[in-house]
Amino acid sequence: MSAVALHADGVVKRYGDAVVLDGARIDLADGRVDGLIGRNGAGKSTLVNVLTGRVAADAGTIAVHGVPVTLRTPADALAARIVAVPQELVMPMDMTVTEVVTFGAEPRRAGFLALRRADRLVRELLASLGLDLDVRARVRDLPVSWQKIVLLAQALHRDARILILDEPTAAMNAEDCDRVLAVVRRLRERGLAILYISHRFDEVEAVCDRVTAMADGRVIDVMDGDEVTHERLVSSITGSEVAPDRPARRVRRVEALSAGSLCAEGLEGDRLDRVDLDVGRGEIVGVAGLPGSGVEELFAQLSGRAKPSAGTITVNGEALTGAASAKRLGVSFLPASRASASLPTEPVLENLALPALSMMGRHGFLTAAATRRRAADVVDRLSLQPVAERRMGQLSGGNQQRVLVGAKLLGSPRFLLLEDPTVGVDVAARAELHALLWSLADDGFGCVVGSSDPEELLELCDRIVVFRRGRVVERWTADEATEHALVGAMTGSGERTAVQ
Amino acid sequence: MSTMPTTPVSAPPVTSDTRARVKRIVTNRPAIAVLFLLLLVGYFSLRLPDTYLTAENLKSVLTQQSTLLALAMGVTFVLVIGEFDLSFASTLGLAGACSVLLMSSDGVSPLVAGVAAIAVGGAVGVVNGVAVAWGRAPAFIATLAAGSAAVGIEQLLTDNETIADGIPNSYLDFTLKEYVGLPLSTWLTLLIVVVAVVVMSYTTFGRRLRATGLNPTAVTLAGISVSWVRLAAFVALGLIAGLAGVMVTSQGGSYFPNSGAGLLLPPYSAVFLGAAVVGRGRFSPGATVFGVAFIALLERGLTMLDQKAAVIQLIEGVVLLAAVVLARQERKQ
What distance in Å separates the CA atoms of residue B83 and residue B234, rounded to the nearest whole number? Predict the structure, then answer.
């Protein structure tokens, strides 16, 4: 058995009353890839932040190669030879490959940079990973998988013994994934201890020797060697959940799919591959997919903010060609980040009026009275009276989301596109929002809900389509779908062979 | 696809061969910069055949624009880290006042007075740097405030009056007396240019400055304190502003109120023009040298053609605006 590289035990981190890490434990060994899985909010990121010195733990012990260490700053972690490669491509994009790889530990001669030696060093380092890359190229000009590989090389140059990879293949297509995974395997051969965090179970199965599953800040399962199967991975993160209290399903109206539907045919784009989708009025369609699966781009195209490179989008037979025609055809989009869609320091009424300003004013002038009159219906409908005079930023996440839905309603849309509508919203508010969407659907609105949360989709939607790597891989009605199947389809654990 | 390639995997070429060749010509910025300068000098040489392209004239451009060159170098450092400094012209005034006052009231030697002035400039830089790096104040407003405070101190010290008495001749020699063809102040400025180029391209510190401007998070992840890098850039500009205060008072042979007022914008013009033409929008000491040279030579030519100051200002503004917009368009592609 290989030597224990890192041992962390009883790690606790609290933010106020919220316990984010509750006695988490993790073991890494030289020459082994350890997977770390769990839902959003399970505490994976916080654990990584603790191990890399970006967040100080409230309790717990960490030992590197048997020696206890205190990690208070990123420099502490680097000194312990723990290097993390974050999910985002955090690097100075305008710099060259050599500059990025050697950054912070540049080869020097007599106090000055040894530029040629650095180039040679980086070339050799890349060659040892089986890669040939123009080291003078600017990283900005490289494909995304190579940018990630540059960061892996940077970690090696920083003399990493323990490497933490956070979602290294997020937003990559299959070919790019393979390239990154090949490098990860080479790093394992070199004897590095690797912590591999991913939502994609096909990769976890393909590359990890051992997997730790987390939920609610605790380790709930550790799978070793042969135990790492997609069945076990899926059940380890779904099994921990209590079965949600599902309200009685709303009665589907028979005429729902009849006329005026939103139709997408053969959509293609950077991350979309011949996607078909249609949404009838009165219907709630869930689009399931992990970040980077293409759901974001689908929403951008459906809302007219991005042009498909092929394919068509029509509403009731009329072509949707851009943001202006989306508005005319009544397709309204609510982005995942509420902050980007609202004015937090302004009253709720102002926020309601914002997207529909052109309909609010009278000859270009706005008066508070006219705004209130115009918004009255929506305020009633969404029961916003109690909060109507408060500032947007003072509202809870759930109420903010309702205000934003209300603002869209003022523009009299026919279709609502919602991206992760209940992110950061508590359970009660989430139920309220779902009830609101059901009643809107009953009134003939068509809704498209993008999410990576299986529970939410199963509860809310009439139909679910599942995206993986830019393709629709499953289409289910609400009754056909199960949480287990949904997680399996999103994470691709059904296609184990694809990356092996 | 095999996961264990026996031959090295190569990154796909970014552009095709012919396109790459065209791109290389367009992106050979030093060559383009030299071409621009040649065209400019060529034009004025034709219009002013006997007077423009003479050693005497070029030397006079260099010595007179030393202050601009030095300040532009300092500004480059602050812009490289992605910040802004609106205080250095006021710092310059305060430093000049301190230097002259020390000599005329306290009888301090010119050398000590000059060093003190530079230290005063550095101190303002420290204030700016601490406010921005640790205080997390927006640089724009923090440096505006620090500059205002500097003007206040300057006026308290000098009662807003011109001081011409008690300045030793050796102080004036700093910008007057020539050693090997150029005054000491100009040699010092050229030294600053060389140091700036070397620091930015050949030292780890220069690379930290650039990375801080490009992606501060990446710097933090490398275990380096971004705050100290930021402080260093502001202090560098402060020290240079202090030196410029000495140069301005030495050149004028006296202290007069509000001496830095006209010196805030020209360095920015030069740095942005250089970045637009040479650096494709990126700031660097080399690009700044071009910007200063272009503006200085243009200004001298227009002056010698008896253009009104207003016309010169108009032409400079148009040139800068065009350069910045073009550079922006180019980067978008």
Answer: 9
A·B CB contacts under 8 A: 92
Token pair recorded at residue A499: 């990356």
DSSP string, B124-155: HHHHHHHHHHTS---HHHHHHHHHHHHHHHHH
Residue range A415-425, pLDDT digits in tens: 999 988 877 66
* Alpha carbon of B57: minimum distance to chain A alpha carbons (Å): 37
Give the integer Cα–Cα distance in Å for B21 and B16. 9
d(CA A342, CA A360): 17
Please name which of A86, A88, A129, A125 lies closest in space to residue A105, comparing C-alpha atoms: A125
| pTM over the 0.90 mark | no
* Residues found in chain A: 500
In terms of CA atoms, which chain A residue is nearest residue B11? A133
Distance CA A96, CA A140 (A): 8
- Class of the domain covering A254-499: alpha beta
Q: Which pair of structure tokens corresponds to residue A45?
A: 């990121």
CA dihedral of residues A271, A273, A274, A280 (deg, nearest 10): -50
- Residue in B9, B204, B282 closest to A106 by CB: B204
Distance (Å, whole) CA B217 – CA B158: 45
pLDDT digits (tens, 9 = 90+) for A366-387: 677 777 777 888 888 888 887 7
Residues of B in contact with A99 (CB under 8 A): 207
Q: Count Cα neighbours of A388 within 13 Å in the Cβ-side half-sphere.
A: 19
- Name the stretches of chain A with pLDDT < 70: 1-2, 40, 171, 173, 238-259, 338-340, 356-364, 366, 424-428, 493-500
What class is the A4-238 domain? alpha beta
CB B327 within 8 A of CB B281: yes
> CB-based contact (8 Å) between A227 and chain B?
no
Q: Do A94 and B3 touch (CB under 8 A)?
A: no
- Domain map (residue ranges) of chain A: 4-238, 254-499
Distance CA B246, CA B185 (A): 9
Q: Give exposure, B283-315, as e/b (b: 16+ Cβ within 10 Å).
A: bbbbbbbbbbbbbbbbbbbbeeeeeeeeebeee
